[in-house]
Design goal:
alpha+beta, four-stranded mixed beta sheet, Arc Repressor Mutant, subunit A, elongated
Length: about 210
C-alpha cells in the first residue's frame, strides 16, 4: 500500500485523487485549490475531471463570483465507495486499535509514527509502530510475543507493507528520555496515538 495515497492500490487515476481531496475537505474548494491539494502544478486536467464528475452528478458545482466551488455529492450512489477509498488510512488505524483492544496483555501505549503517520511514504514504506509494554512483562514473554507477532502479520495482510515494531518497557522510558535517541524526536513530531496516553506524557513522567 502506498502509505501517502492508499487509494492508488485500487484506482491510481487523477479522478480518484480529485475525489479523495473532495471527500476530505471541510469547505468547498475552487478548482485551483483542488489542483493544489492533489499536488498538480497545472489545474487544467483537474478542471476536466471536475467537470466530468459534475456531469455524472458525483460532484456538485456552484458559482462563487468568477470561480466555481466543488463539493462531493454524498447522496450519490457512488459516494460510499469514494468514502472508503478516502478513509483507508483511518481504517488501518481503526483496525490496529481493534486488534490491540482484544489483546490478553494490554500495552501501556501504542502509536504509529514515521512515514505512515506523516502520510509521505510509498508502497515500500514500513508501517512503524511504537509499543510500551508493562514493566512486569518481559520482552520474551510468550503471550506478549504471540500477540505482537500476530499484529505484525495482520498489518502486512491489510496493507502489503512490513510492520516495523519498536517496543520498550515502561521502565525503559527513563533511559529513552535521558539518551534522546532519534526515535524519540520522531515520536514527538509524528506519533499518532492508537492506545494509551500521549508519548510526551509518558516520557516526562518516566
Amino acid at each position: 500500500m502506498n502509505v501517502a495515497a492508499p487509494h492508488t492500490a485500487i484506482c491510481p487515476t487523477l479522478d480518484t485523487e480529485v475525489l479523495t481531496v473532495l471527500a476530505g475537505t471541510t469547505r468547498p474548494p475552487t478548482g485551483r485549490e483542488v489542483a493544489r491539494l492533489t499536488g498538480r502544478t497545472s489545474h487544467g486536467g483537474v478542471l476536466d475531471v471536475l467537470n466530468r464528475l459534475t456531469e455524472h452528478g458525483l460532484v456538485d458545482r456552484q458559482e462563487a463570483g468568477r470561480a466555481f466551488l466543488f463539493t462531493l455529492n454524498h447522496e450519490h450512489l457512488a459516494a460510499p465507495a469514494v468514502d472508503v477509498l478516502a478513509g483507508m488510512r483511518t481504517e488501518l488505524f481503526e483496525r490496529i486499535r481493534g486488534a490491540v483492544g482484544a489483546w490478553e496483555i494490554t500495552p501501556i501505549h501504542m502509536s504509529v509514527f514515521g512515514s505512515t503517520a506523516r502520510g509521505d511514504g510509498n508502497t515500500r514504506s514500513d508501517i512503524d509502530l511504537f509499543i510500551v509494554r508493562p514493566s512486569i512483562v518481559g520482552q520474551d514473554d510468550g503471550r506478549w510475543r504471540t500477540q505482537v507477532d500476530e499484529l505484525a502479520g495482520q498489518i502486512q495482510r491489510w496493507t502489503g507493507n512490513h510492520a516495523a515494531i519498536a517496543e520498550a518497557s515502561a521502565d525503559e522510558l527513563t533511559s529513552l528520555h535521558g539518551t534522546q535517541p532519534p526515535i524519540v524526536s520522531e515520536l514527538r513530531s509524528d506519533a499518532i496515538v492508537l492506545s494509551g496516553p500521549e508519548i510526551e506524557f509518558l516520557l516526562e513522567g518516566s
